[in-house]
Design goal:
By secondary structure, the chain is of the alpha+beta class. The chain is built from 16 helices and 37 strands. It has five domains: 3-278, Rossmann fold (3-Layer(aba) Sandwich); 284-391, Elongation Factor Tu (Ef-tu), domain 3 (Beta Barrel); 402-474, Elongation Factor G (Translational Gtpase), domain 3 (Alpha-Beta Plaits); 481-590, 2-Layer Sandwich (Ribosomal Protein S5, domain 2), CATH 3.30.230; 593-685, Alpha-Beta Plaits, CATH 3.30.70. It is 28% helix and 33% strand.
Length: 686
């Protein structure tokens, strides 16, 4: 397959916008499957891409799944990503290796909270994308409102490429604004696309919408602009202009349909080919570790091989590493180098993936996605030809924000948990685990309740571990509330060479969550070679504060005076002096405990708005914004993390299971005085 006919595509969206359903239809129309499975299907089959038992039961995507299909004469590698913010690293890793994406939006919900997160990720990795407004068959569907939200909320230059013939129950077909033809989808599964003339009642709306499309597209093509003014524009001119705008990420072409009702998916597949880039149209960079400079990668078969590991999976035959090949050729039996460790690896088995199924291949070229068996590596590693030393930057990995204590009930379970934790941490960088030296508990940390619950359930199912789970431990922080001057001398004489260092300055609040070390030494009272020791002492003081032993944030230490001894001073002496100066000043600076605050976005039928507001108030939350839109209300609130445990269950029972919510870390804020006193008592009791 020529590289210009390859597309590496991701499907990203808010929870329950229909990503997996859309992927299922794509597989069906591309003859990859012969029966359509549904998310939480009645027959228990489930969607093809949700291969994990937990995914089938819960009707959500937990792990991104890769597949490859052929549409017309093009090859597509498609990745279906999770929608829940808890599994954000799966989305980050998938986007890192994609050349294009489909941003799926609900025709009723429009741009929702997770759509904003996904859009931010697409922008971070500069991924060109199309928008697909799904669920046009639902009551209240309004593509014009969603297009407007794309502009206002996400800052997209969104342009409708199609308009619907009817919405909700009366959604019949789609009008293509480029060819000015109506398309209908016949047969039970919409396999046959029938082209007809535009119905008279839609002609005026179609003309008006086409003019807006041409106006937007002509910004990316002088030829089209000229032809448009003279009334002689062609479909080919429009395709070229829109493609140029989409690849430059200056324009977002918008398509419509209903994946569940089998309408509009084939036209979206055509759009992927027409408007999204092939691997050789994307600029990919790597760092040349030998020369410490950036280099461009090209999907040329004859260049040295470079591949990036974006997903790991444990199979019964060993570890499966999903690799995007950016450059060169990888063959079965080749020797590659892991640029992080310097270790050589031999490619034993090479496969193309289709969800949990695989097809073994002998060779794979630049621009494609493959899986390599039995290779020991970590997520984000780069495999290269032994002749080059390139490394691709690691994806953005957010810090875990919630912890849970787990205890095993027998020795066999302890061994099983150790194996499971080692595997999960390797596969998911947002999942962390350590043993608390004080309590002896195993602490697991992650991105949310759902995230940790899934892993606990997987330990029980996949490893047969018997475990007890106790309440999550909140990651508190501490900081200071006033500035304090310090002047500390460290002096120690033990016979022979002693230790001497004096540091003076001010410890103050940095005004944000960041910790800052600064020196304003005048006249060389502390020589330059000892300054790194001072900074090391400052950094060492931040792990456990002197107030309640929580990590310290938001402090700034400025050293502006000091003294040294020509014989007894050393970097270690200044490190100790700084650490002791910090400790003494910190206690005087009125330290305070900070608690993590979550941004919670709830979407609920308007009839339950009062119930939702009551839940937020009961949990010390603060409503920031409410948006009432027809029958739905969107509530944005800030809620302390400690108060969010059990929130999902509470919300479900208060809204008859009809509300949805997303939650992500926002910032740290001071804990109210009375709660701070209670927490101190609790910690002292423990």
């Amino acid at each position: 397959m020529p590289i210009r006919k390859v597309r590496n595509i991701g499907i990203s969206a808010h929870i329950d916008s229909g990503k997996t359903t859309l992927t299922e239809r794509i597989l069906y129309y591309c003859n990859k499957i012969y029966k359509i499975g549904e998310v939480k299907g009645k027959d228990g089959v489930g969607a093809t891409m949700d291969s994990m038992e937990l995914e089938k039961e819960r009707g959500i995507t937990i792990s991104s799944a890769a597949t490859n299909v052929q549409w017309k004469d093009h090859r597509m590698n498609i990745i279906d990503t999770p929608g829940h913010v808890d599994f954000t690293v799966e989305v980050e890793n998938a986007l890192r290796v994609l050349d294009g994406a489909i941003l799926v939006l609900c025709a009723v919900g429009g741009v929702q909270s997770q759509s904003i997160t996904v859009d931010r990720q697409l922008k971070r990795y500069e991924v060109p994308h199309l928008a697909f407004i799904n669920k046009m068959d639902r009551v209240g569907a309004d593509p014009y409102k969603v297009r407007e939200q794309l502009g206002k909320k996400l800052g997209h230059n969104a342009v409708l490429m199609q308009i619907p013939i009817g919405t909700g129950d009366s959604f019949e077909g789609i009008i293509d604004l480029v060819t000015m033809k109506a398309r209908y989808f016949e047969r039970p599964n919409g396999e046959v696309v029938v082209e007809k003339s535009i119905p008279d009642s839609y002609k005026e709306k179609a003309e008006e919408s086409r003019e807006k499309l041409l106006d937007a597209a002509s910004m990316f093509s002088d030829n089209l602009a000229e032809a448009f003014l003279e009334g002689r524009e062609t479909a080919e001119m429009i395709y070229r202009a829109v493609r140029h705008g989409a690849i430059k990420r200056k324009m977002t072409p918008v398509f419509l349909g209903s994946a569940f009702k089998n309408k509009g998916v084939q036209l979206l597949l055509d759009a992927i080919i027409k408007y999204l880039p092939s691997p050789n149209e994307r600029q990919n960079k790597a760092m040349d570790l030998e020369n410490d400079e950036e280099v461009f990668l090209y999907p040329d078969r004859d260049l040295p091989a470079v591949g990036f590991v974006f997903k790991l999976e444990n199979q019964k035959y060993g570890q499966l590493s999903y690799v995007r090949i950016y450059q060169g050729t990888i063959r079965k039996g080749d020797v590659l180098v892991n640029s992080r460790t310097g270790n050589k690896i031999k490619v034993g088995r090479l496969a193309k993936m289709h969800a949990k199924d695989m097809e073994e291949v002998e060779v794979a070229y630049g621009g494609t996605i493959v899986a390599i068996f039995g290779v020991d590596c970590a997520l984000g590693d780069t495999f290269t030809d032994p002749d080059v030393h390139y490394s691709l930057r690691e994806p953005h990995v957010p810090d875990p924000i919630i912890s849970l204590a787990i205890k095993t009930t027998d020795n066999q379970s302890q061994e099983a948990v150790s194996k499971a934790l080692a595997r999960f941490m390797k596969e998911d960088p947002t999942f962390k685990s350590y043993v608390d030296e004080e309590t002896g508990d195993t602490i697991i940390s992650g991105m949310g309740e759902l995230h940790l619950n899934i892993y606990v359930e997987r330990m029980a199912r996949e490893y047969g571990a018997k475990i007890k789970v106790s309440n999550p431990k909140v990651s508190y922080r501490e900081t200071i509330t006033k500035a304090v001057q310090f002047d500390y001398t460290h002096k120690k004489q033990t016979g022979g060479r002693g230790q001497y260092a004096r540091v003076a300055g001010i410890l103050t609040h940095s005004g944000e969550d960041e910790n800052i070390f600064d020196e304003e030494i005048r006249g060389g009272v502390i020589p330059n070679q000892y300054i790194p020791g001072c900074e090391k002492g400052f950094q060492a003081s931040l792990d456990k504060g002197e107030y309640m032993k929580f990590p310290v944030v938001g402090v700034k230490m400025i050293i502006d005076d000091g003294n040294f001894h020509p014989v007894d001073s050393s970097q270690m002496a200044f490190e100790t002096a700084t650490r002791m100066a910090f400790r003494k000043a910190y206690v005087k600076a009125s330290p305070k405990i900070l608690e993590p605050i979550m941004k919670v976005v709830i979407e609920t039928p308007s009839e339950f708005r009062g119930n939702v507001m009551a839940i937020i108030n009961q949990r010390r939350g603060m409503v920031i914004d409410t948006l009432v839109d027809d029958h739905f209300t969107r509530v944005e609130a800030e809620v302390p993390l400690k108060e969010t445990f059990g929130f999902a269950t509470n919300l479900r029972s208060a809204t008859q299971g009809k509300a949805e919510f997303t939650m992500e870390f926002l910032q740290y804020k001071p804990l109210p005085k009375s709660l701070e006193e209670d927490l101190i008592k609790e910690l002292k009791t423990e």
